[in-house]
Design a protein that fits this description.
This protein has 402 residues and is α/β, with parallel strands linked by helices. It contains 16 helices and 14 strands.
Length: 402
């Protein structure tokens, strides 16, 4: 196979983002296909025994087993790395597989991690439940409090782990400050960038070491497959992440990789249009509810920071109703166009009640500490006409007594 129609990585890295999203990481076989080929194979054959021995010894490039390499998966990894501005990328079977691998590949018993209070429920579970089982201490802080990061550092602190904007509170953390502090202390930053993707925010530009994704979300963008990705330096990906991944096997299937490759081709357009729609819908909702958590709107404490490090607001925001769970569920039940769903990043508009879905397992005290109230709703604004979404929300809010 021939990569990127004969062009090397040095050339492709000079392309602008829109070109990288279409042509980055393209390998073509002798058939000359225009769309990326789908390689559904677990293993590979070799011309002779010496070739396979050289490949397994790392002395010759080439495929050996699809738990280590697959052409379709490798194309996706190269494309995501180009979009992210990273030296390397490895994909995983899901977003949580990516988060888990990014942490466990570098943490050992006796290490310490500082983690953000506001996060996706499963990400909090990693720090609250999983890592302590292996002797890894975790300190949870308010990610928006810069002083809290420094105060939490111990001699054995190895990782800072957070997402911005946070799910579902939309907390915006200061990437430049936190990543700069971490580097000055020899700490690795792992950033969950699923809410933005590199189309809207590139943490590596602000000093991050590792960026992790649920590619299930905006990268696919149409609710079709599960996928995850971890980006970083070649040293981190090849020396820390790869040994963990090749021996534990959280691999992405070639078919799912192919679907995400197709999603990346329209990522920039979708992310920006959905951001535009979300801003219009958010402005409407702000006039009807007590509290809205939208990083682009006045009143959000992280508004200035969001404008600094994000290219657009993204498709997701939350709002809070005074009537708690009963009123929140009444609004959801009244929706006619917007779907009740806990997914995000989809081209369809989706809404959920985090306290009874994505953050249910944290319990009442855990949710309260994070700021996930019974009256909170989270919406993913899709590609529908925003006026249709506003009309649906208008009638649903009215039926819920607002």
């Amino acid at each position: 196979m021939k990569r990127t129609t004969g062009m090397d990585r040095a050339k492709t890295s000079q392309w602008r983002p829109a070109t990288r999203a279409i042509r980055g990481g393209t390998w073509r076989s002798e058939m000359g296909e225009t769309s990326e080929a789908l390689f559904l194979t677990s293993g590979y054959c070799y011309d002779d025994a010496a070739t396979v021995a050289a490949r397994f010894a790392g002395e010759q490039d080439g495929m050996t087993y699809s738990r280590l390499q697959n052409p379709t998966v490798a194309m996706l990894e190269e494309r995501i790395a180009l979009l992210e501005g990273a030296e390397a990328c490895r994909t995983q079977a899901s977003g949580m597989a990516a988060m888990t691998a990014a942490l466990l590949c570098q943490l050992s018993a006796g290490d310490h991690m500082v983690s953000a209070r506001a996060a996706f429920g499963s990400c909090r579970w990693l720090g609250d439940s999983l890592l302590p089982r292996f002797g890894i201490d975790v300190t949870v802080i308010d990610a928006t409090d810069n002083a809290a990061w420094e105060a939490a550092i111990r001699p054995n602190t190895k990782v800072f782990f957070f997402e911005t904007p946070a799910n579902p509170t939309m907390d915006v953390a200061d990437l430049e400050y936190i990543c700069g502090l971490a580097r000055s202390r020899g700490i690795t930053t792992v950033i969950d960038n699923a809410f933005c993707t590199p189309a809207l925010q590139r943490p590596l530009e602000w000093g991050a070491d590792v960026v992790a994704y649920s590619a299930t979300k905006l990268m696919d963008g149409q609710g079709r497959v599960l996928a995850g990705a971890v980006c970083g330096s070649e040293e981190f990906i090849n020396e820390k992440l790869l040994p963990f991944q090749r021996n534990t096997g959280p691999n992405l299937s070639p078919f799912n990789a192919w679907v995400v490759l197709k999603g990346l081709e329209t990522l920039d357009m979708r992310a920006r249009k959905q951001s535009e729609n979300a801003l219009k819908v958010g402005e409407f909702v702000a006039g009807r509810v007590r509290r809205i958590l939208h990083p682009w709107l006045d009143g959000h404490p992280g508004q200035a920071l969001a404008h600094k490090q994000m290219d657009a607001c993204g498709p997701i925001f939350s709002f809070v109703l005074d009537g708690g769970r009963e009123q929140a569920h009444a609004l959801l039940d009244a929706l006619q166009l917007i779907d009740i769903s806990n997914n995000i990043g989809d081209s369809r508009s989706l809404m959920c009640h985090p306290a009874s879905t994505t953050h249910h397992n944290m319990g009442p005290e855990g949710r309260e500490a994070m700021g996930v109230s019974e009256g909170m709703l989270r919406i993913n604004v899709g590609l529908e006409d925003p006026d249709d979404l506003i009309e649906d929300l208008d009638q649903a809010l009215a039926k819920a007594g607002l």
